[in-house]
Amino acid sequence: MRFDKLSISQKTINTMSTAVIEKKRKNIDIPIDTFRNLSIRAVSEGRSLKSYIEHLLVMEANAMSDEELYRILVKNKPQGNVYLNETEQNEFENWLGI
């Protein structure tokens, strides 16, 4: 199976409203069939493949709620500082319904 490479890197973009959007570049390998299908969908929306994939990823990330992200973080127990004591964490999790 053949793969094509796409890449994403970190950069800062200044928008017209003076807001700064940071971006990150990441190389990914996708099957050639996926590349072809996404290219067709991108063209049908009047976008470049790069723009279309970026749009899909942003939409997917924005669809995640804070509760979902928190559940993932709690499940994976990332290394780092503990900002809440056990009682506060339990109250917060109850408030989230998890």
Q: Indicate the low-confidence ranges by residue numbers.
A: none
Terminal CA distance reads 41 Å
Structural domain tally: 2
Task: Give the total of beta strands.
Answer: 4
- What's the overall geometry? elongated
> Largest beta sheet: what is the strand line-up?
1-4
Structural class category: alpha+beta
Mean pLDDT: 80
Element-by-element helix/strand order: EEEEHHHH
Strand content: 15-25%
Instruction: Count every helix, treating DSSP H or I runs of 4 or more residues as helices.
Output: 4
* Rg (CA only): 19 Å
What does this structure look like?
With 98 residues, this protein is α+β, with helices and mostly antiparallel strands. The chain has two domains: 1-63, no CATH class; 64-98, no CATH class. Helix content is 51%, strand content 16%. The protein has four helices and four strands, in the order E-E-E-E-H-H-H-H. It has helices spanning 32-44, 49-63, 66-76, 86-96, and strands at 3-6, 11-14, 20-23, 28-31. The strands form two sheets. The chain has a two-stranded antiparallel ribbon with strand order 1-4. A two-stranded antiparallel sheet has the order 2-3. A hairpin with a 5-residue loop joins strand 2 (11-14) and strand 3 (20-23). Helix 1 (32-44) crosses helix 2 (49-63). The longest helix has 15 residues, at 49-63. It is elongated, with a radius of gyration of 19 Å.
